[in-house]
Amino acid sequence: MELNELLEIGQKERSQAKPVQIRCCTAAGCLSSNSQAVKDNLDKAVKAAGLEDKVQVSGVGCMRLCCQGPLVQVDNQVQPEGTKLYEQVTPEEVPQIIAAVRGEPTNLREYDLNHPFFTYQKPIVLENSGKVDPERIQSYIAADGYQGLYQVLREMKPSQVIEAITKSGLRGRGGAGYPTGLKWATVAKSAGEKKFVICNADEGDPGAFMDRSVLESDPHRVLEGMAIAAYAIGATQGYIYVRAEYPIAIKRLQTAIQQAQRLGLLGSQVFESPFDFKVEIRIGAGAYVCGEETALMASIEGKRGVPHPRPPYPAESGLWGYPTLINNVETFANIAPIIRNGADWFASIGTEKSKGTKVFALAGKILNTGLIEVPMGTTLQQIVEEMGGGVPDGGIAKAIQTGGPSGGCIPASAFDTPVDYESLTALGSMMGSGGMIVMDESTNMVDVARFFMEFCMDESCGKCIPCRVGTVQLHQLLTKIREGKASMTDLQLLEELCDMVKNTSLCGLGQSAPNPVFSTLRYFREEYLALIR
Predict the structure, then answer these.
(1) Angle, helix 158-168 to helix 329-341, in steps of 10 degrees
(2) Which among 475, 466, 477 has a CA at the least distance from the CA of 509?
(3) What is the CATH number that goes with domain 144-347?
(4) Start and end of every NADH-ubiquinone oxidoreductase 51kDa subunit iron-sulphur binding domain (predicted)?
(5) Which pLDDT tens digit goes with each residue over 320-365?
(6) Per the count of CB atoms within 10 A, which of 51, 372, 440, 443 is most buried?
(7) How many other C-beta atoms lie within 10 A of the C-beta of residue 319?
(8) Nearest to 225, CA basis, from 164, 176, 273
């Protein structure tokens, strides 16, 4: 395929767009609230009203305001009202949406698109979410899809691609924040008969659903990012490691891979160039530890998913002993827009050391739960109180937990902190993959620490003793404290054991398991002491 053929597909798709676009969210959150029945009824109602020439109904990905699903957005070029977002739409309310299209009054619940929940966002990763049909490659191409891949294959050397990613300042969005360009450069320099690209979509943090939403909403964006990475490092084979608990994401990825192969955008001689790149899906069995890169590679190889000591690092000796690049879903989703818009554009967003935007799954005791993408440097106060609308029923936010089981709990007194890698680490938490759970005054912080320790205890692979035994003993101590049966000696033992588990565990699961305990002791020590007294 040549560029003019790609552009023709996009132009044809845009020219066929009808004056009224009705987009119904068909991501997992809204589907669980019966949005498929809403979509089916919309199709029938448009046909029954004889509006097929005027109205187009599409199933799209996540529209972000998950707490108000099912969501239906109407973009009307005929009526002066323009764009409307209807919330909690039931199948029975579909006739009212058709009435709204005709300009008639309705009783539909409409959400204000000028609310800070939307206006504070800067979509880069999510720019197509809720707009393109994730099951039609033509819809993605019409939104400039695969132009970045064409650009690198025809206009850039692999070293220039790596230079652009390095200059952009993009850091890995999987949690550690390692510079993406540096990782790519390391794999590119590594000698090997073959190289691999892996997309880590084994999203296992409680309360996190960022990667799932991206895969369900815009799968081609991730595939394009992987292909650009493969060209840059010299790989010909890619794997996407996805949780089995994400059936919709898996289905849409399979469809996207097949569609891209048919158009010559994946497979042999991509864009009629010498570049070959094939992508396969590997489905994980739900082990949290397989999010750790060495355990993930062992699982892809058909072995038990347990971590291995490093070095050697995957960049030098990864999958089957060959140099391997591993990035997560959100990292790959940033690649195509950086190529299209330039490294300077991306580097102009965010803070000095944390460039670009970050996607968060906002959940917990907060009014507006859902998916947000904000520039790095946005404060926790803006996210919780303005975008999230604060705690329901006039409650007061007590803390926010970031980074999943690996992260920590940040008190409300520190909500003026900007969200970036260094600031969150200084508070005893971390960026993580992007989970954010808000807690109110009714939350007992010892319970929070015990919950995450129980999670780590259950998910430990058992390979190393500090994690296998230490997490069990930590959970027992936290339970003893919570039940009011502990002494100050137990509290001292808890802190010593946390330090041991952190510094002697084999992989990131055990090394970070004590973090919620450390942070709650740091900011909410009085709650521990009150239970001991």
Answers:
(1) 100
(2) 466
(3) 3.40.50.11540
(4) 446-491
(5) 999 999 999 999 999 999 999 999 999 999 999 999 999 999 999 9
(6) 372
(7) 22
(8) 164
